[in-house]
């Protein structure tokens, strides 16, 4: 037990992380915003504008995609580190949008080694999804966010034509790289019979403009972070997307293209995971998923619709309705293991009020065998049947509750089952969207 007690009075660990334990949209934005109050720097290390973090402050709702949600606390360094893929147009839009709403943007810095999502990456993302989804026998589309994430990371791995943020300030290098990338992309477009072509000069000219606007924020964030650590500053790493979407440990191939667990912090920032003292795993009190891929506890009936409606389960990034289902503890326990989670944040518990009974998946059946192991392989996971435990529901509105022991007995029982199964204490409970609708607790694992 790490003794989290919130911004008022809690002595933060020096390096902490917040990660999602399901398929994204767990409410990490709110948890990061909350914990950011006690940290000096908040760092994004993976993903790009595919992420959508929502934070509600007073009557205002902020949706962030690229900028660390901790920026809303003001007076913080907000670092977009090298592991992120940055769409400069989206970033500038976000800076402008937040700035015009009075958010202090002076602390935002951007790694010169983050990769740039170029227009041809977004085009290729859409093209790929379109071609593969049209083929009914293949049904091979991933259902991406169409933000160019996969093609940008693929280009990073291919190397020669990949543009990094620092290249936006070096016209010669930029032109050379864009030329390589466009040679390949235009050949691909020709091969698939698409009339679209990318003009190197046009792409370069736009990218240089973006570079000029972002220049004051661009720096070597690896040295910056090590300097902060050396000065005993408190650093919070903010995972985007989530564990079950991780390219190595998620439900492959229905995943995103980056390392979205706490394991991604090292490569994504240049700061060793050895420095992490605390990893908060954020999980919804139920399950959701957007895009394709297996989801053992999905409900395609009226109960699923009710969860979607009560939880406003529509994507922050794409507006797509999310697939909804009961809590899958087999999946959550696996995710906690991968991340080395030290504490849980259970969000959206209020959405479960009003259900007569609550089901929780605690094992799977596959080929006639029971197992409590998760399979991060889509074809295998597709074949499991979830086995549920049924718990009594609660009807009370819990939006005003601020102490764990004031929760209805059935809600407390639900949280205890989570702790016992995952063997990690619940430290934060979300009882509504607002910043203060948060319960901090010192739970015991029994
Ligand atoms: P991509 O990251 O756009 O390539 O999409 C790959 C898969 O990950 C799709 O199913 C997306 O819906 C999903 N995905 C990516 N980022 C997020 C996120 O932040 N929340 C939820 N789903 C996500």
Specify the overall morphology: globular
The counted number of beta strands is 20
Quaternary state, please? single chain
Main sheet attributes: strand count, strand direction, barrel closure = 10 strands, mixed
Structural class: alpha/beta
Share of β-strand residues = 15-25%
**Overall mean confidence score, pLDDT:** 93
Radius of gyration, in Å, reads 22 Å
The stretches of 5 or more residues where confidence is low (pLDDT under 50) are: 1-10
Helix content: 25-40%
Adjacency order of strands in the biggest sheet:
9-7-5-2-10-1-11-15-19-20
* Total number of helices: 12
End-to-end C-alpha gap: 12 Å
Attached small molecules: inosinic acid
Q: Helices, strands, pairings?
A:
Elements: E1 15-20, H1 28-36, E2 41-44, E3 53-57, E4 60-64, E5 77-80, E6 85-86, H2 88-100, E7 108-111, E8 115-116, H3 119-134, H4 149-158, H5 171-191, H6 200-214, E9 218-219, H7 221-230, E10 235-238, H8 265-269, E11 278-284, E12 287-289, H9 302-310, E13 323-325, E14 327-328, H10 329-339, E15 343-347, E16 357-366, E17 369-371, H11 378-381, E18 385-392, H12 409-422, E19 426-430, E20 438-440
Parallel strand pairs: 1-10, 1-11, 2-5, 2-10, 5-7, 6-8, 7-9, 11-15, 14-16, 15-19
Antiparallel strand pairs: 3-4, 12-13, 16-17, 16-18, 19-20
Bound molecules: inosinic acid.
């Amino acid at each position: 037990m790490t003794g989290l007690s919130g911004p008022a009075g809690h002595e933060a660990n020096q390096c902490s992380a917040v990660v999602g334990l399901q398929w994204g949209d767990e409410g990490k934005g709110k948890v990061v915003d909350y914990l950011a109050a006690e940290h000096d720097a908040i760092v994004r290390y993976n993903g790009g504008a595919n992420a959508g973090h929502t934070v509600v402050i007073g009557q205002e709702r902020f949706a962030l995609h690229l900028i660390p949600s901790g920026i809303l606390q003001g007076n913080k360094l907000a670092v977009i580190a090298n592991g992120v893929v940055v769409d400069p147009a989206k970033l500038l839009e976000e800076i402008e949008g937040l700035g015009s709403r009075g958010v202090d943007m002076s602390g935002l810095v951007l790694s010169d080694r983050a990769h740039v999502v170029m227009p041809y990456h977004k085009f290729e993302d859409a093209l790929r999804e379109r071609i593969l989804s049209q083929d009914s026998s293949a049904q091979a589309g991933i259902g991406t966010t169409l933000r160019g994430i996969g093609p940008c990371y693929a280009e990073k791995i291919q190397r020669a034509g990949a543009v990094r943020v620092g290249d936006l300030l070096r016209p010669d290098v930029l032109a050379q790289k864009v030329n390589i990338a466009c040679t390949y992309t235009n050949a691909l477009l020709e091969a698939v019979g698409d009339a679209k072509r990318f003009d190197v000069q046009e792409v370069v000219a736009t990218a240089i403009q973006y570079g000029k606007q972002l220049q004051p924020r661009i720096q070597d964030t690896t040295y910056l972070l090590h300097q902060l650590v050396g000065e005993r500053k408190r650093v919070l790493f903010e995972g985007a997307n989530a564990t079950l979407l991780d390219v190595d440990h998620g439900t492959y191939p229905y995943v995103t293209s980056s390392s979205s667990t706490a394991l991604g912090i090292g490569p994504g920032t240049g700061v060793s995971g050895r420095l992490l003292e605390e990893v908060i795993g954020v999980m919804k009190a139920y399950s959701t998923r957007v895009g394709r891929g297996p989801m053992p506890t999905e409900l395609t009936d009226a109960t699923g619709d009710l969860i979607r409606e009560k939880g406003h389960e529509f994507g922050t990034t794409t507006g797509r309705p999310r697939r909804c289902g009961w809590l899958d503890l087999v999946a959550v326990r696996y995710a906690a293991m991968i991340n080395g989670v030290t504490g849980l944040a259970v969000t959206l518990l209020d959405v479960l009020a009003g259900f007569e009974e609550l089901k929780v998946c605690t094992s799977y059946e596959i080929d006639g065998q029971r197992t409590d192991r998760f399979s991060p392989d889509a074809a295998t996971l597709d074949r499991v049947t979830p086995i549920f435990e049924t718990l009594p529901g609660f009807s009370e509105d819990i939006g005003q509750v601020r102490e764990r022991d004031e929760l209805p007995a059935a809600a407390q029982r639900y949280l205890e089952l989570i702790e016992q199964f995952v063997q990690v204490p619940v430290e934060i409970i979300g009882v509504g969207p607002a910043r203060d609708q948060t319960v901090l607790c010192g739970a015991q694992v029994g």
